[in-house]
Each structure stands twice: as structure tokens, then as C-alpha cells.
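Pasting two entries for a bug report.
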Amino acid sequence: MAVSDPSLDVENALFASGVRYVIGCDEVGRGAMAGPVAVGMAIVDARIGGIPAGLRDSKLLSEKRREALAPLAADWVLHSAVGEASAAEVDALGITACLGLAGKRALLALHASGADIAASTVLLDGSQDWLNPALGSPLPVQTRVKADRDCASVAAASVIAKVHRDRMMIQLHDEYPHYGWAGNKGYGSPAHMAAIAEHGATPVHRVSWIKSEAP
């Protein structure tokens, strides 16, 4: 197995310890200058079948491959959802609080689809539990650095969330074509930053971030 191939080893260890469901969780758009931050969640149980061929952390895949894998990942897991926090919310609350807010919205969407949230442990990519501070009732959360690379449920959440947010930024490109969002997806590429300098910020820019980048 290549280093970039995720497995279910961590999820299976959680199932063996008595956990009924594992919710893989990953964020996308954290470092963007425009658009929402999004949190993807994908829930699996011990009966989950073979991992879709080619599933990877979304950062290791081409856009075309992500688009092909997203529906396969969504079909593979029991339920999936993406929650968002807007650029205005990022300006008002800060990025860490908005990760939690987007995660809370994803959990609510999972619950609405029939997922048993109360019987789940969240497997969260990274070293910080930014989810529980946003919840009224805490959930078991296991953080893991590079979980999006190593854990199949988190890789699935990563791909689903990335495709969801990318499609949103491509749609916004049609409304605000100067900024090149169809290509840069709201991240601070040189062309994007030059367009901000020439045309100013839009309602979907993180204005506080632009100010922090100003000389």
C-alpha cells in the first residue's frame, strides 16, 4: 500500500473499542481570501465495504479526479454532509470559531439525513478540536494529524467538501469574473490579489483578511 492510500485501520480500532459510528471530518477553504469555509463529514460503521478505488485526501487529487470520486465517496458512506460559514461570519467571528460553526451545521445536516450523531465519535483531521466549542452538547472527538491522508472516512469527507466548495466558487466566478475564482477557488493567488487591488473587495471576500495583507 502506498503512503497516500488511506485505510480503515483507525476507524476499525474505534469500532473494536465499542464505538458504533465514526464521522470522518475535514475542512476546506480555511486559508482562502474569498468564499466560505466548509466542513465535510462522512459517517461510517463497522459494516462499511471496500474503499472506493483511488480515494485520497482531496489535496492529492486533480480537480477532474475529485469530481469523479465525490459521488463514489458519497455513495460509499452511510451519510455525508457539508456545512459552511460565510466570509462575513469569518470576519465577525474568526476562522476557528467558524470552523466549529460550519462543523455544527454539517452535523445538523447529518442528523436530518438520519445519522445517529449521539452514537458517533468524530475523527477530525488536525491537532485541534475546534468542533466541540461550537456545540451545546460535546461529542467524542479524536484528532489526528494527516487523518485526511491516512483515514478513509476523513479522505471521503475531504473530497466531498472540496468538490462542494469548488463548485460554489465556480458559480461565484460567473458573478464576479475579475477575480479568477474558477481557477483559484478564492485563494490568494497573485492574479486574485491584483484583482482585489484593482477592483476592490466583493461581499464574499474576507475583508479582515484583505486588510491584514495590505502593506
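Entry 2 (this is the one that rendered wrong in the viewer):
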Amino acid sequence: MKFRKLLIASLVLSLWGGTMLFADGASQRIRVIVNGGELNDAGIFSDGKTYLSARQVANTLQSLVFWDDASKKVTIYKPNVHMFLFQDTTIFGNVVKGNKITFKVFAQIDNLLTDISAVKLTIADPSGAEQVIQSKNVSVDKDNFWYRTDDYTYTFDAAGKYTINFYMKVSSGDDWNLVSQKTITAKAP
């Protein structure tokens, strides 16, 4: 009886180990690089095809991603968002470190092929600390619109790259999705 249990256990473990080796040989994890940055959740290569996380790809490409459970369908939308930074009536992109500047952000959005409920703009300093410039609920029924923030005053304390981030939210319960970025460089005087 003991010998029979030992034989069955050995057979099961052998089959399981062989199956795992075959599965490992049939598909392999791969590194995925998009625009110079590596995705956290690597892809899988199997049977001559590469499989990637739709959410990771959409986030990397600054897009909106939707999962429809009923139809088992993933949809990715990539709106065009062009941002312009104005100090009074002058467009700018570089500042002197230590300057306190009042500016506004104009954004032109087109190719918006889905409804959205809100937009948010933030500024991130060179260390990554982020502050909200403006957040607003919107109701857009067309594929393009303009958005302008109120005047915002900010001190560029450190030299380096500051990032203006434009986020969209599809519905009030959804997460914010980063859809565009603009860089401001603060240089030493």
C-alpha cells in the first residue's frame, strides 16, 4: 500500500514537472521597451506571438484604456493633447531657477473618441513631487475642445526638468489617466 502511494506520488510529480518544463519552453517572458523605458509587466512570447498587458501599453503611450467585460473587449483611445504655456501673453518653456512665475496652460484636445467626465493638470518638480494646477469636471460632446487653466503661481526652486501633466477621467469612479506631458526646464541664473 505504501509502495503504491509512493509510486502514484512520483508519477504525479513527474508529470507536473514535465508539464512545467514544457510550458516554460513553449512560452517565455520577454523584456518590452517603449520609447526607451522598460514596461514593469513584461510580455510573453509564445508560438511566434508576443502578448503584452494592454493597460501597461496604454499607460506608456499616454492613452485611455477600457475593458468591456460583457464583450471581452479591450479598447484603447489616444487623444491628441497639445499644451501651450503662457506667462501673460508670452509662450515659454524655460525659466530661471528661483523665479516665481504666474502662468496659465492652454490645451488643444482633438481625436477624443470617447466621453470624458473631468480633466486635471499638475506640475511635478525635478524630484517628482506633484501639485495640482487645476481640476475640473467637463462635459464634452464632440471630438475636440480647448481647455485653459486659471492663472497659477509657482516658484521653480530647483534647477532641472519640471513636468506639466494633463490627465483625463472617463467617469467619476475611474482613475485619472495621463494623456499628455509638457516639460519646463529651470536653469541656474
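Dev reply: Rendering is fixed now. As a check, the viewer should reflect this: The helical segments are 2-26, 54-60.
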